[in-house]
Fold this protein.
Amino acid sequence: MLGARERKREHCEDILNENTESIEQRIHVAIPTLSTTRASQVMNLSRSAKSSGLSMAVFANGLSAFETLEDTSVDVTTAGNNLGFAGAVNRAVEQRPESCEWILIMNDDVEIDDFGIVVDALSSLPEADFVSFGDEPLHRIPRRREVFFSVSMLSGLRRRRSNTRFVGESPADHYAPFSAVAVRVSVWEALGGLDERYPFSFEDADFGRRARDAGYKRIALSDRGVKHLRGVTGRANVATVLPAAVWGAYMYLLKWGTSRLSAMVLCQGSLVLRVPLVVFSRSPKRQHLVGILRAMRALATNKRPTLPNYDAF
């Protein structure tokens, strides 16, 4: 007959086993997608996630991606227009089951060997509120200087000089890009999801900053077999993507205490500096210059630029 200590130990082991077995049902994968060029990768992610017992929702910002995926086993929805990254993620997250405790946000150009990597990590980190995966380094939470470097394209040079990856609790002044990140549902709801004022950029920096300021524990795991393949859709459509990205930088500055005039001067100055650096870009040079001019006009008229057309993809 078991003693009290043995019965207590067995009871704790039963609870642990029960929690381990059911954590898969508490993870919801949210994937935004735009172009049909990533359809096969999205299907691979969907099959792998479902085979691991995770729920999944894909939100398409492009018509071709939606039409390609809707006749497959992928759970895909669309609004019939391009909502941008933040809008697509928010809609995909809304489709989570009620029992969900974790949201796993993934780009459609992420490669993961086995979603068991995520399950095991979240099972072993009961104190974490936000966990980032993958080979992409953490970035410094943007101040005005970082925004200037980003818009001007000088950030690429700075990143090559400082390409540090972390394993463990994230430094207070850094955030994880939203390539592959897991966020507790309670944290997501408390912070209100991604801010859709950012149409194409700075939405992850803004969320990371809010999570840091609220005191949530953020863990970075760059050693868990998750790879960001990095798509080329943005470069190919730089004439429309760049103005939206610059607008995101402008909105970020305004939200975090920069005056409208100072934000305008900083972004316009960054774009002027960007012009001679276009020669080093891998995007089409003429379209890149068109994108710079459109971004300048959007800032000058204080009018949010449009994203790439839904029907164009």
